Amino acid sequence: MSSTMETAAPRLVDAPEERASIAPVSGTPQLQLVNVWKRFGDPASPTVAVRHVDLKIQRGEFVTLVGPSGCGKSTLFNMIAGLLAPDSDGSILFNNVPQPDGKLLGKVSFMPQRDLLFPWRTVLDNAIIALEVEGMSKKEARARAQTMFPEFGLKGFERHYPQQLSGGMRQRVALMRTFLFERDLMLLDEPFGALDALTRTKMQHWLLQIWAKHKRTVLFITHDIDEAIFLGDRVIVMTSRPGTIKCEEVVDLPRPRDPSLVTDARFIDIKRRLLEVIEEESMKSFAATGAH
Ligand SMILES: Nc1ncnc2c1ncn2[C@@H]1O[C@H](COP(=O)(O)OP(=O)(O)OP(=O)(O)O)[C@@H](O)[C@H]1O
Ligand SMILES: [Mg+2]
């Protein structure tokens, strides 16, 4: 496979203009977390992973989440996805309706931190896993998935196996699988974490176009501050573990977003403020681990 093919993010044909304005921040939230906690281990001396998280996400928003490693970001996603039950202190609501334990599974589409592609399944059959689990026939699921291959830059790779793909392509397969599981809310846990800077920039631009086209709400975890600002309507900063929300920055920058935005004075200003709080948090976790 040529290196160009490996690094190039797909171009969208007939892509709509990315939304021109940020989502409204009032009205009934699509997702609401109220006093959410998660403790692991011995109840007498638990590891508190997530502490007192209150969060509201409006329909159609693109919200990015940053915070030191180990602060509980993935744990938070696992709870929203229904893979982990939150402790009994708080609740998670969809469209104002509290979701009891066990009722969240399948309500959101979730791309976990590791791409979790099955090596023994073709790309096409990896893409349809969630649809199959939902009860759709393999034939129908394959037919539906097939239509998305061009959009995700994977046309012609349907019968390849994951180990025959580049890192960027594997991540697009995982993203395509997440999009195919059509839920209004998508959770993306460091989807571009393993990519080189150039591919990553292309993928960010492409994701914004896909987001505009499919009109989903996105919650996106990243360690890259530029990425968080470039993509988000809001950037939420978590504290070091036990993780809670430290602050948020509204990114009131125009859409469609252009890569040159990173040199804009407003972008740099937001980045400076975010770096200050993130630096403060990393110093705390550094001190807590006793590192020098
Ligand atoms: N199933 C589990 N059992 C016990 N402890 C866990 C479990 N899952 C997570 N933890 C702990 O909870 C804390 C938060 O982990 P989590 O994976 O949510 O962090 P993170 O913010 O996603 O980190 P990173 O940025 O490195 O991905 C860590 O201390 C981790 O060891
Ligand atoms: Mg994580």
From TrEMBL:
- Domain (ABC transporter) spans 31-265
Q: Which GO terms describe its molecular function?
A: ATP binding; ATP hydrolysis activity
**InterPro entries to which the protein is assigned, alphabetical:** AAA+_ATPase, ABC_transporter-like_ATP-bd, ABC_transporter_ATP-bind, P-loop_NTPase
Annotated keywords: ATP-binding, Cell inner membrane, Cell membrane, Membrane, Nucleotide-binding, Transport
Among Pfam families, the record links this protein to: ABC_tran
* Gene3D superfamilies documented for this protein: P-loop containing nucleotide triphosphate hydrolases
What family classification does the UniProt entry report for this protein? Belongs to the ABC transporter superfamily.
Q: What is this protein called?
A: ABC transporter-like protein
Species annotation: Caballeronia hypogeia
> Lineage, please?
Bacteria, Pseudomonadati, Pseudomonadota, Betaproteobacteria, Burkholderiales
